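Reviewers of the previous submission asked for a worked example of the structure-prediction workflow described in the proposal, so we include one complete record here. The input consisted solely of the amino acid sequence. No template or homolog information was supplied to the procedure at any stage.
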Amino acid sequence: MVLSERDFDCDVLVVGGGIVGLSTAYAVTRAAPGTTVIVLEKEPGTARHQTGRNSGVIHSGIYYRPGSLKARFAVQGAAEMVSFCATHDIDHQVTGKLIVATGRDELPRLHALVQRGRENGIPVRELGPAQITEYEPEVRGLAAIHVETTGICDFVGVADRLAHEASQNGAEVRCGEEVVAIDRRPWGVAVKTSSGSILRARAMVNCAGLYCDRLAQLAGDDPEMRIVPFRGEYYELTDPSLVRGLVYPVPDPAFPFLGVHLTRGVDGGVHVGPNAVPALAREGYDWSTVRPRELAQTLAWPGSWRIAGRHWRYGAGELHRSWSTSAFTTAVRRLLPAITEAGLRPAAAGVRAQAVLRDGTLVDDFLIKESVRIVHVLNAPSPAATASLPIGREVARRVLAQL
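From that input alone, the workflow returned the following structure tokens.
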């Protein structure tokens, strides 16, 4: 079957209206003017999940293995994100942040981060206890590093602007359209949405976040991973004056989570968290949200059980902090001794779309796979929002090559 140009609804169909999907649409319209793009988002509006439910940090790239996509995209993306926000008058600040060691066992890991930061070209300053209090009077630690390129911004505002800019270049963003079927043909891809619409495209990009593995399966591809959702639970300080900027613990290298940290947002409030607990649904933002089918799919994946077997002690601690405000407060007091249980109030939670391999490996880097007529973004964890502009260009380059 040979189709003419007018038989296609678009050249590139992007599924997912989060910051990565919108950045991809923006990048396609800039790299190849005249290329028609449609973005499908199942929610009534864009940026409703991971993009709109995080701490709003512009990450420097200090944590990531030199040479990895994370390191390259984060360092480049942080500078570009600051420039993009400044150009489009989006709330942002370059605040810098402290990474604080509170125990002697953390000192070797802190020193390793100094080296990693320098390898990634990130300005890092080492601090002693007295210097820590110069930056953060209420924070205590044995040693710390100050990372000056870290900042904060309004990622929902960024996503809105990307959608606007892409639309100005001819792209179309359609909300309330969930993809329920995908039919790949030699000439391209046809998708059916929940409204009954059929759309034909020459190529497709899967930026479906929490559902990216399911979308890959709908297309007939084996993603060789599954999304295992982890909920990140946040509190906020009732007295935000206790923290001036961003304060992080030294992360455990065995996990892709950064630990409970303190983040002053663009609104002036200070978020505390997140912890990381298994979610009982892909959009399980609290313990009461349970979707049996999704939970069964998570439990059926061998990697889920292998994670539990390897890391049950760590997981038990996270669960304890989820159920006990007192335990959560104790964890925070390692960094901020002045905090009390009454000084914390619950805030909105997020869910991380963590890609897990069959053997239980937590995919740490960005994972982008290509098949005929489709590019799948299968793992885009933090710092995906920070790095969304270079990630969008990379995905756009790959999908345009398929045209």
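Residues 228-362 form a domain with the D-Amino Acid Oxidase; Chain A, domain 2 fold (CATH 3.30.9). We consider this example representative of the routine output the project will generate in years two and three.
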